[in-house]
Structures are given as structure tokens and as C-alpha cells.
Amino acid sequence: MSTPWHFLSLRDVDTTTWQDLLAQSEILSGPRGREPLLAGRRCGMVFFNPSLRTRTAFEVACGDLGAFAVNLQVGGGLWSLEHRDGVVMDGPHAEHVKEGFAVLARMVDALGLRSFASLADAKEDARDLVLRSAAAASSVPVLSLESAMDHPHQGLADALTVRRKVGERAKVVVTWAPHIKPLPLAVPHAATLAFAQEGHDVVIAHPHGFDLDAGVVADATAIAEAAGGSLSVTHERDAAFEGARVIYAKSWGARGYYGDAQRAAADVMAHPEWIVDGPAMDRTDGGIFMHCLPVRRGVVVADEVLDGPSSVVIDQAAARLDVQKATLCRAMGVTA
Ligand code: CP
After folding, report:
1. pLDDT band at 51, cuts 50/70/90?
2. 1 falls within a domain
3. In a shared domain, residues 205 and 250
4. Are residues 164 and 306 in the same domain?
């Protein structure tokens, strides 16, 4: 049996696949994306966490392409799933992903999985065990719908959006933003890797202590340089915004406080001046404002930016449908 094409992280995607996925996304954003290219195929989604965009994009993509989609919400009718190896299952989890995903893979042709980081142990999160265990157990392609470490469909949609809105190599700033609670690293990792794949000049801006995963940053640097771009990290937010064509805001927690909810929450609220507001956007070179959504108004970004002409967040979210169609087609060996 051949190994299925899993789409787990942008760190694993080679240039040819990356370019093909984006090209297919553009084709499938048009009339071809409403043809029954996946007629008779069956897809499953397993969500450990909530979603608005991702679930809708997956289900609508299946419907538009003629496939059937089943949605399974862990804790909402689906058995609670264990993913660790070698544990005695005398706790709350009734089924192991080894059996769960092996069974699902016998009933569907591709599986999507969402499983957020625990934010309790950075080393454990970096192993991305829920996603990796599920992929290992599945004989059909597994598509990450956001895991502890990456959100590859979001990254694809982000890259597609910048192609559509900017269309050339540009200074792209992935900037930390305040929040009321610590959030995972998956989205800033995905955005960084995606913009690196595109050969942009990527600047990651965050206060001291909010470093992204060093392995991801190293991989993204290598990818950016191979693609003709660059990657740098700064703690000087205002300087970073100077001359930027893209401002990509996201909140994330400091890994040094993982497992200490009170300190972690205090830490993400300790830098309110990092909110993206009008004066900050005025430093850019007519930059567009991006965020993966959902976003907290007045905390992450000021209304004047989110509601203003620089904001592309709705088009960015809509692009999730285009890239979802592309990954589903690729998973099932179909070219549009
Ligand atoms: N951006 C994103 O993944 O949105 P959802 O969490 O609503 O799916």
C-alpha cells in the first residue's frame, strides 16, 4: 500500500507542490470549482476545537466538488480520543486515535483534522502528536485543519491573498498583537512559512519573550532564502512597520509561561501598545492589514483599521474555500 499524501505542515511542502496548490486554488476559485471533480468521494472532518471558517470551507468545498462530507466534533457526539502511545486508558478518553482514524480511513477517502496546542508544555506541543498519530493511523490522506504547530490551509490562503492584493515580492510583517489570553503558535508559524515560500522579505515582530519555535524559524529562513527572499526577527514594532506592504497581525502566548495560566494571560496583556491602529498602519507603504480571524476588536486591532480600506481580512478568509478545494483535489489525485 502506498503512503497517502498527508498535508500536515508547510515545513514539509516542496516548491513544486506549493506552486501547484496555489495554481490549482486559482483555477478552482472559478467555474471549475463548481464541477463534480470529486463526485462519489467521501470526506471526514474531525474537530477537537471550534471553527467557523475552516469547517465551512471544508464542507462547502466538498459540496461544490460533488463529494460527501461528514463532520465529527470531539466531545459533541464523537468519543473522546486518546492520542498518546502506551498509556493505560483509565481516564476520560474512550477510544484511541489508532483505532478511530484507522476505522474512519476505511469509510472515507480523505480526512481533515483540527487539534490545537495544549499550551501546557512547549516540547509536547512541538511534537504535534495528535495530528502525527492520526496521520500514522490513517490509510487515506489527512489534511491538517490546524494543529499545535501549523495551520497550512491558512498559510496557503494567506499567500494566495497577498498574490492577489500585492502581486510581487514585498516586505511582509508578521506582528504579535495583544490578547486577553495566550493563543497557540500555529497561525504565525503558517504565515511565516507561507510568506517564506513566496520569497517575500518576512519580518517577524514581537516583544521579548514571545519567540516562535526555533526550528520553524530556521526552516522558514532556509525556505525564504531558497525562494529569493529573506527572514528577520525584531522587537522594534514601529521600525518593522516602516515600508511594509503587508501587516499580518496575530496574538500568541509566550512559551516561557506555558502551564501558568495567570502569568501567561498577564503577559499577553502587558503590551497594549502593540495593537495595530491607524498611526501604526500610517508607517507602512500603503500596507494591507491581514488577520486569520476570529479577531478581537479594540484588543488586537483598532476598528479604524479593521473597517478601513487597508483591511483584506474578509477576502483572506474567503480564499480558504479556494485552497481547500485544491488540497482536497490533490489528496484524491484529481487535477482541475
Ligand atoms: N482562521 C480560522 O482557521 O478560522 P476558524 O477557527 O473559524 O476555522
Report:
1. very high
2. no
3. yes
4. yes
Cell 467521501, residue?
42
Same domain? 138 vs 218: no
Q: Say whether pTM exceeds 0.90.
A: yes
CA distance linking residue 331 with residue 3, whole number of Å: 11
Give the ligand 1 atom nearest the CA of 54. Answer: 8
Tell which residue, 8, 9, 33, has the closest CA to residue 319. 33
Number of C-alpha atoms within 13 angstroms, CB side, residue 302?
A: 14
CA distance 174 to 190: 10
Do 178 and 201 lie in one domain? The reply is yes
Residues in the chain: 336
Which amino acid appears at position 75 of this protein?
G
Examine residue 336 and state whether it is found in any structural domain, yes or no.
no
Nearest CA owner, ligand 1 atom 3? 54
Same-domain pairing of 170 and 303: yes
Asked if 58 contacts 145 with a C-beta cutoff of 8 angstroms, the reply is yes
Q: What is the pLDDT of residues 196-206, one digit of tens each?
A: 999 999 999 99
Q: Is 54 in the pocket of ligand 1 (CB under 6 A)?
A: yes
Q: 29 and 88: one domain?
A: yes
For the CA of 317, the nearest atom of ligand 1: 1
CA angle 29, 32, 37 (to 5 degrees): 115
CATH number of the domain within which 306 lies: 3.40.50.1370
Average pLDDT, the chain: 96
The total number of structural domains in the chain stands at: 2
Per residue in 67-117, pLDDT tens? 999 999 988 889 999 999 999 999 999 999 999 999 999 999 999 999 999
217 within 8 A of 231, measured Cβ to Cβ = yes
pLDDT value at position 1? 60
In a domain, 249, yes or no: yes
**Mean pLDDT to the nearest integer, 326-336:** 98
d(CA 85, CA 152): 25
Domain that holds residue 100: 10-150+320-331
Instruction: Report d(CA 262, CA 252) in Å as an integer.
Output: 15
For the cut 70, the answer to whether the pLDDT of residue 158 exceeds it is yes
Among protein residues, the one with the nearest Cα to ligand 1's atom 1 is 292
Which ligand 1 atom sits closest to the C-alpha of 114?
A: 8
